[in-house]
Amino acid sequence: MRFDVLTLFPDFFTSPLGCGLLGKALAQGIAEVNLVNFRDFAEDKHRRVDDEPYGGGVGMLLKPEPIFAALESLSQMPRREIILMSPQGQPLDQCLVRELASNYEQLVLICGHYEGVDERVGYLVTREVSLGDFVLTCGEIPALALINAVTRLLPGTVGKVASLKAESFEAGLLDYPQYTRPAVFRDLAVPDVLLSGNHQAIERWRREEQIKRTRARRPDLWEKWNATHNQS
Q1: What pLDDT digit, counting tens, does each position of 160-196 carry?
Q2: Which CATH architecture does the domain made up of 167-229 adopt?
Q3: Were 85 and a residue from 23, 69, 80, 139 both cysteine, which residue would form a disulfide, CB within 3.0 to 4.6 Å?
């Protein structure tokens, strides 16, 4: 998987891309991140990438020319998706992450700034993606989240593949509670069932806890899951 990130701040990614499983995956060639500063493609001597919006308004907009030129400078792989990180986009969830990890070999991520981008940039993109219903100062934060989430699902990133199938959202439910040693800590004890060695009982308890936790913490997920599983 190759990620081409069009950004005004390539240094933003330096430390996160070198840490943890993501850093190891990049070092092993499981994924590749190509950082492109689209200010380098600005056409005037001041390398200006923003301007005032037509019709008036507060703030500045990113100009289309540098972004178009930066994208056109990239080599194109057969299965490519061009994504604008935008609060108006499709919410980034596990279903979308799986789709991107499975169906594409090149993801181009355009990071916005200021009050947004010139609407004509929309002619370039094949999808807009949002991290949630809130506004950030830059598109680099959601771009980094997308890179991390997609790379986790690529073969070789996570050692135990089974663990990917047993975490939050994969089955439409939140994850179950988990414990490790000691069995009792400050009078807080691990549930007896987890110490019983009865694997059927443990699986049953975990499923019940997933349902209980999802119903309490994420009613929206619970309603969706309940509708497809006929639970009361």
Answers
A1: 555 555 555 667 899 999 999 999 999 999 999 999 9
A2: Orthogonal Bundle (1.10)
A3: 139
* CA–CA distance, 129 with 81 (Å, rounded to integer): 11
pTM of full prediction above 0.90: no
Q: Strand 61-62 vs strand 50-51: parallel, antiparallel, or unpaired?
A: antiparallel
Report the distance separating Cα 38 and Cα 109, nearest Å: 12
97/224 Cα distance (integer angstroms): 19
- What is the per-residue burial (b if ≥16 Cβ within 10 Å, else e) of 197-214? eeeeebeebbeebbbebb
**Architecture of domain 2-153 in CATH?**
3-Layer(aba) Sandwich (3.40)
The two structure tokens encoding residue 134: 């809130």
Distance CA 221, CA 187 (A): 33
Q: Which helix (H) or strand (E) holds 174?
A: none
Residue list for the binding site for S-adenosyl-L-methionine: 112, 131-136
**Residue 114 near residue 50 (C-beta atoms within 8 A):** yes
